[in-house]
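Re: your question about Threonine synthase

S., sorry for the slow reply, the queue was backed up all week. Below is exactly what I fed in.
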Amino acid sequence: MTTISLATGQRSLGDPDISYPLWPPLTRGCPRTSSDTMSYPLEIDYDYARVTSDFITGQGRPRSGLDRWAPLLPPLAAPGLGEGGTPLIAIGDGVYVKDESRNPTWSHKDRLNRCTVSAAVAIGAPGVVVASSGNHGASAAAYAARAGLRCVVLGSPELPPAVASFLSAYGAVVLPVETAHRWPLTERIAEEFGFHPVSNLTPFHTGHAFGPEGYKTVAYEIAADIVDPGAVFLPTGYGELLFGIAKGFTELHRLGLVSRVPRLFSCEPAAGGPLASALRQGLPATEVAVGDTEAYGIACPVNSYRGVRAITVSEGRALTVDDAAMHRAQAELAGQGLWVELSAAAGLAGLRTLPDDEPIEGPVVCVTTSSGFKDTRVGDHRLAPVDPSWENVRARLRAEGIRS
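Result:
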């Protein structure tokens, strides 16, 4: 049984005939196909001929964490925190929720950062630097701490309280700065201090080549639980999760372990929607103005070519959902005992707003990406003391529809 990484190199998404060695990780996308006006990401290639037929069942490999899927991941040089293995919860009518809030820092970003921080460890970097005001920064800080590395997080001045608390707990150096300064400072910190950048450095998002590989494990876990879903609906910002899940199912199909690649539906805030815009125009990437939305975690002005590839390969669709639809989905999930961040409800919102004339064959999975604790308004809901007399309590309960 192979338990080590079968990764062989980095391959350009701009031109699959262009490849690079696995080391060092290229953090600015493909240098040969990218330009000042377009950025093409890289992906990791593997020796697929050495993947055994029991890859999904994983006999002889760890049963939890990303280590279970080590053959089709970059080398996992950083210690894990038990990321992955999140539950798939049925909510009725053939719909399942893949609840990524169960990860160590309560978001899907833990799968990505196990891989990116592993790259930092493997090349001997003294720390990592990340531009993020949300889940990515909190997760990077946790995995850096676990690996014994320093972490610098360039966040926004409007950093949500829960995220600020996360970062402080992990000992990260947090520098709230205006958005325009975050990426240039990320690059300067990487150059001067040797810190490894684990977030984006390019105009049209390329991110870290190792990162989306961690997201493939979502597809592996879904396949292990229900084998052949008909569709997967995903909250979508820059499209790294979308691409990772598409690649994961594509790999399993290539290996003959699933019968099809499910249709993937990207679900972006209607206040922006750069991926939907790019697909409408037949472009690899585009930039849009972002209006007001509470879904701050996925409110992106640009898309990555990764998302275009994922929707095309899976014959899926790019959807946009407004805040009202996300609030309804968030409430529906809460009614099932699942409290998620508003951005994380975008996948279910996309499913619920899908036209009736677009049927889906087979089970549907909606991925929820993070905990409700990450929302910007957490802590604002204050409760006034209640008169404890039985007459008052009984009246309050009856007003809420509770009857004896």
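The radius of gyration is 21 Å. The domain at 82-377 is CATH 3.40.50.1100 (Rossmann fold).

Happy to talk it through on Thursday.
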